[in-house]
Amino acid sequence: MSFADPVVLVGLFAIPALFAWYAGQQRRRGRIATAFVGPALKPSVAPRSPRWRRHAPMAAFAIALALLIVAAARPLRSRAEPVTDGAIMLANDVSSSMNATDVAPSREGAARRAATRFVAGVPGPVDVGLLVFARTPTVVQSPSANHALTDRALALRLHTSGGTAIGEAILTAIHQLQSVPRVAGQRPPGAIVLISDGSSNVGIGPLAAAREAASAHIPIYTISVGTSHGTITATRGSKSVSEPVPVSREQLAQIARASGGRAFTASDSAGVDLAYKRLAARLGHRQVKQEITASFAGIGLLLVLLGSALSLRWFGRLA
After folding, report:
1. How many CA atoms lie within 13 A of 8 on its CB side?
2. Domain 84-283 in CATH 3.30.160.670
């Protein structure tokens, strides 16, 4: 919970002072009663003591005051509501290391399959596009509300090659999102979902590209797919050799942080599915601040009425 006018909460410091004043008044009444009535005569003069009832109205008033001060600070709570606009650009790594089969059926195959399920869960009005990258990025489908087009693009089995140009892929995705038509003069919110298994080794630095995405208010959500023992078959001269391609997660995590997004890791096909499922939930809803002043004010006023009713019922006075 947050507050629109948090400075008003300073008034809560008055509550302890109120209790201190009340305790002093109770001691003062006790001293006055003792001065006029001897201890031996007190049971006959005041045979019944209200005990806890004496303090119940004051407790109700104090809690009510605290709630009304909180209400004056205009409390806010976050509420998730479905996204009705926006654009998402999927950026899939198709470099040669994505052929590794440590994630079944392969890193690239698991990424494609999970991305298809992700697109199926994206709200209809949200545009979704796809680009693939190795040494250079290629836009396979521009962002579109026709998700069937993106599904068909994901079904294409593109040949993987060497090199990983993550920075160039990010810049291309930013350009695609900024090309989405404006709605009522405003560009729809955008996000990039980038899945890869390694560090960028071609083109512009990915962190510089991530900072550019942040300046454009486009968060990047990264998914690192693979394990530390992944291998691919490479040709060296006339021989085929097994070449290790361990996943490199740190750079993808840095990209997500620099852009204001979030990093996910996936060591198997189930992990890839889970990462995309969490992303679908995150990107399919947005957090909206909702003011709940009326709730606090209503409870506070009810406690004022309760305290007044108890005081009238038990002591014949309002306070």
Report:
1. 16
2. no
Residue 110 · residue 70 · CB < 8 Å: no
- Tell me, rounded to whole angstroms, the distance of Cα 277 from its chain centroid: 15
Residue 220: phi and psi, rounded to 5, are: -115, 125
Q: Where are the beta strands (DSSP E) in the chain?
A: 2-3, 75-82, 87-93, 127-133, 137-144, 190-196, 220-225, 231-236, 239-244, 263-266, 285-291
Give first-to-last CA distance, the chain, whole Å. 33
- Which residue matches tokens 């209503």? 298
The ranges assigned to domains in the chain are 2-78+290-315, 84-283
The total number of residues shown for the chain amounts to: 319
For the stretch 35-57, pLDDT in tens is 555 555 555 555 555 566 666 77
pTM of the entire predicted model? 0.67
Q: What are phi and psi of 310, to 5 degrees?
A: -65, -40
Structure letter (DSSP) for residue 159: P
Using one digit for the tens of pLDDT, what is the confidence trace for 51-107? 666 667 778 888 888 888 888 888 888 776 666 678 999 999 999 899 999 999 999
Cα separation, 15 vs 8, in Å, equals 13
**DSSP type of residue 266:** E
- In the DSSP assignment, the letter for residue 227 is -
Report helix, strand or coil for 259: helix
